[in-house]
Amino acid sequence: MNPVILSKDHLVPLLRKISRSRRLIAPLRNEHGDTIFSEITDLDGAVPDLDNQAQNSLKPFFFPQTEKLSSYIIDRDPVNGALRYSFHAHLPENRPTLYFGVRSCDMFGLMYTDMIFLGGAERDIYYEQRRKNAVFITIGCNHPWKNCFCNATRTGPFLEMGFDLQLTDIGNRFFVEADRAGGMKILRNYPQFFRPVTEEDRRAQFQAALEARGLFRRLVHVDLAVKLLREQEPESLFAELSGRCRDCGGCAFLCPTCTCFNITDRQLDEDGGERIRSWDACTFSGFSLMAGNHNPVDCSTGRIRRRFLHKLKHDTAKHGRPSCVGCGRCVDICFGGVDIVRFINSISALEEENGREENHER
Amino acid sequence: MRDNLPPRIRTTNRNPYLPRQAVIREIIHENELVNTYILSFEDELYDHGFTYKPGQFMMVSVPHGGEAPISFSSSPDKRDGFALTIRRSGSLTNAVHALGTGDIIGLRGPYGNGFPMERLRGKNLLFVAGGIGMAPLRGVIEYCLQHREAYGSLTILYGSKSPAEFSFTRDFDRWEQAGCCLRLTVDAGDGKWRGRVGLVTALLPENEATAGDAALVCGPGIMIRFVIEGLESRGYTPENIITTLERHMKCGIGVCGHCHFQGKLICTDGPVFSRDQLSDLTNL
Amino acid sequence: MTNSINELDHAQVILVAGSNTTEAHPQVARRIFHAVDNGAALIVIDPRRTRLADKARIHLQLRPGTDIPLINGMMRCIIDENLIDDLFLSMRTENYFALRDMLLKVDLEETAALTGVPRKLIARAARTYARAQRSTICYCLGVTQHVCGTANVETYANLAMLTGHVEQEFTGVDPLRGQNNVQGACDMGALPAVFPGYQSVADPRIKKKFEQAWGVELPATPGLTLLDMTHNRGAASGSALQKALPRLRAMFVMGENPMLSDPDLHQVEKTLKGLDFLVVSDLFLTETARLADVVLPAASFAEKSGTVTNSERRVQLMHRAIAPIGDSRPDHRIIMSLARRMDFAMDYESPAEIMEEICLLTPIYGGMYHDRLASSHGLQWPCTDRAHAGTPYLHKYSFTRGRGRFVPASHVEPAEPVDADYPLMLITGRRYHHYHTGTMSRLCPTLDREEPRPRLDMHPDDAAALQLRQMDRVRVSSRRGSCEFNLHITPRTPPGTLYCDFHFHEAPTNKLTLATADPTARCPEFKLCAVQVRKGGAG
């Protein structure tokens, strides 16, 4: 389908129409100055914030920090006293939703989590309930933020596919591309909002995309790190960084592609309880702890080892690309300075140093 | 992610996290720490159609106790119920041991890849078990005995910490009578023990292995490592050295990440692995 | 704190004493890491080799309880090498000569022997701290929870004044407070000798001001300290001081669990059980609440609005996120309901109105109105009126008392030194994943998984001598009681010393600790007591 133009004036009116039949989730700046993907119920009171990076990704909407999977009941058979024990699923309700103002990195993150939760041996029915009937209007990043490196992970700043609609800000209007059915449907249902693109529009979009690539403030050698990790695992670097890791789990919680979770039973009373799923992090010492106190992972050196190997090495081997989407959220949150950017740059520096030493020896 | 397209849609409404009710039909007290539970599902129709492969496992739930993975210790040919052998080690396994026949537990599964019984046809099989590691191997042994002509010679090497800690002692005579070569060893005797004392690695055959030989190993991680090294030095090829690994698991279906190991997920890529699939043998 | 947390980023030298910052104050540790990454020198004073000590340029691994001789040693080096700040001394301090005379008698060889820190290292630390322009001291409970806690702090203050590292940006003497609002509680006068804002109860003008505001007569003498209250019924062999205390008949305990967190639990239990009436308000039925006649369910932080004041004197607004669950009530409503029933009309419509009264009566909080706090990241006191922007660092022009006074101190032996019967020194403290008596943190499955059982840290040499192995159950006993832990063998704890936490009610650590307290601050010597260790019962 050919791209079209949406005037900025018409954005809110369009969203208003769509939000009659769909929940609207968009980046919203609250009174404390934090921008967070939130539900917008009143477009007059709250306008999507397209200037700041949302602190959360889309992950919590499909895979929340905690959720009740089921409840269980225990009782005794009245005749023979045998233990009776049954579970009752607690499925989340599905709400048709429009996710607006999603950046390429987060969209890529979503494609990854779709693969994990829906593309595996079994479908995760809880994720699916929250995930279906969703439409995504993404927006390209003309001005990458300070920690962004989606260019290095090849996950932005603009998408080529995977969105329903993608907007590019070209001044007083948006350049609108459609890819998937949900986007086509919006263009079909609300044709009055859109006009065809002109040559000038195309040039403006081309220019914006070109300039965006030059505005990244961080040079992060993701491909070099991936290549180096294939050859060798830098044990001393892992040990050094593990010593800095403060064991807070912030990186895993914020990361759009981290999907590890814990399942625990929460006893409510003698004869019943709930089975709860909650976010977990492979950087926690107890993550691999087995009964009998056996822990196959030594966290003094291995704490961050599996995190980075997973994102950069194992996922590349399994899926063809690293699962880091370059959103940069872990950089600000990390207490100890052990974020993925630091790791990638450290391993590249190590390689450079080794290379220099070798040259020197010769 | 390879081609950036969303995953193909599959149509099923199954909730993979919801355990089914299974009744404990019989409890066999193997030793002080180990019981074998013979189970069948409460839903008779489901139970009738239920099958599994040797080497697979179930996620076992007990009230307020969460879940843990337990391997089958029976062969799928067994018609009246299936067996899960459980060693008391943590709060969940202790909670199972407090249950009696007629009591219900929650089960999800079967999960995991299972042993490659097809590929092993025609081979001489060497089983090397340490401690509770005998449980998943027992399922394979029973399967082989049920399909005797399909497999070559069956040799079982079983090591235990002490004579009192062997499991499945009731099977030993039957196995020997069926033609298996059974060798037992203990780390430390008890005064009455007249058998071998020493590590199970000392029981490994002297002869070089041929292409028609395969070995199946299960036990504590460090034991697996030494046994595999011993087998390799005797000429067993990497594809013919097979082991099953254990890890803390929460989902069993490849999502929660806890069983991640050397870039693989033990619950879906394993728990059965051949030597050539393992990059190294540390931290098994 | 005299200065602010963000100033740590720009310090050239950070001296951290008695603080396991990476575990207890991660956000402060973050600044320290950042400073070190940018070239700052980190000096850590701690008997244990903590994670923070790993990152230090100099780790002064002193024998527990020897801060005073160590710092005196450092000051002696500073004087010897003429690194004192003469100008600061002459303009801003007094009593220097008393300090100098004491220091000139210090024998550095003796100091090294007493503290266990090599003389060269003491000198190097002294030089590093003194030479830099921007040097900061951060300290925590490892310094204060001693019988000489007050003298410890005064000694660190001596060090800072000697070198002029106070009253400027990026310097200072910074205690790291524990709870998010312990500073606030102290600010509001939850101390026996002051009204809100550290205004003395003994000052008749202050007393009159509050009497007018509240329409009642107020006592002119200080009240009871925490230990006076919870150790009110000392054993027959109790001290004369204890015997002279007014006998308590009733207590109202709010959000505190002295049955686990106060020293010498035997005494605490005796006192609480001996009361005529005990009321406890808390979120959960704690060990203390279980003994109460009446339990009032209190609302958590998420269920009420108000302010909290942190280490750097910053008052921040907290916003209620959900309505109080069940019958629980925010503390101010509990207090107001009780007051009304006692015929004292206390009727504030909101926490904002309560703050208005605080601003009226408390000079250092004079400008802390909620609307001002709402539009910023909080304000640091002193903030004397609506126009005042708050105070990032204190004492810019002069100290509170005018000139800073040097208070020379000498080494004080621990109240209970080790001996043949109790040969090991027990240090008590905290662990990363749990908070205090675990009433909240142990209910979180992830935190519980990370730290599921009470641990005792012991050096491999000590473990070998006692023939103990990793994860063994051990029984630790002191003259006051005993409890069991799971052994964790680690070289981070020096030989002869043990470390344990107090997060697990199954291992009530305070059965072991001493109630002997610092005479001025009345803070118990939680950090040191003599114990013996044996292999424990079955797990």
Question: Which structural traits does this protein have?
Answer:
heterotrimer, B: 284 residues, alpha/beta, Elongation Factor Tu (Ef-tu), domain 3, Rossmann fold, seven-stranded mixed β-sheet, six-stranded antiparallel β-sheet, 5 helices, 17% helix, C: 539 residues, Dimethylsulfoxide Reductase, domain 2, Barwin-like endoglucanases, 3 domains, six-stranded mixed barrel, 21 strands, 31% helix, globular
Write up this protein:
The complex is a heterotrimer of chains A (about 350), B (about 280) and C (about 550). In chain A, about 35% of the residues lie in helices and about 20% in strands. With about 350 residues, chain A is α+β, with helices and mostly antiparallel strands. Chain A folds into two domains: about 5-215, no CATH class; about 220-360, no CATH class. In chain A, the strands form two sheets. Chain A has an eight-stranded mixed β-sheet, sandwiched between helices. In chain A, strands 5-4-12-11 form a four-stranded antiparallel β-sheet, with no helix packed on it. Chain B folds into two domains: about 20-110, Beta Barrel (Elongation Factor Tu (Ef-tu), domain 3); about 125-275, Nucleotide-binding domain of ferredoxin-NADP reductase (FNR) module (Rossmann fold, 3-Layer(aba) Sandwich). In chain B, about 15% of the residues lie in helices and about 30% in strands. The longest helix of chain B is centred in the middle third of the chain and has 13 residues, at about 135-145. Residues about 1-10 of chain B have low confidence and may be disordered. In chain C, strand 2 (about 40-45), helix 3 (about 50-55) and strand 3 form a beta-alpha-beta unit. In chain C, the strands form six sheets. Chain C has a six-stranded mixed β-barrel with strand order 16-20-17-19-18-21. A five-stranded parallel β-sheet of chain C has the order 3-2-1-5-6. Chain C has a three-stranded parallel β-sheet with strand order 9-10-11, with no helix packed on it. Chain C is an alpha/beta fold.
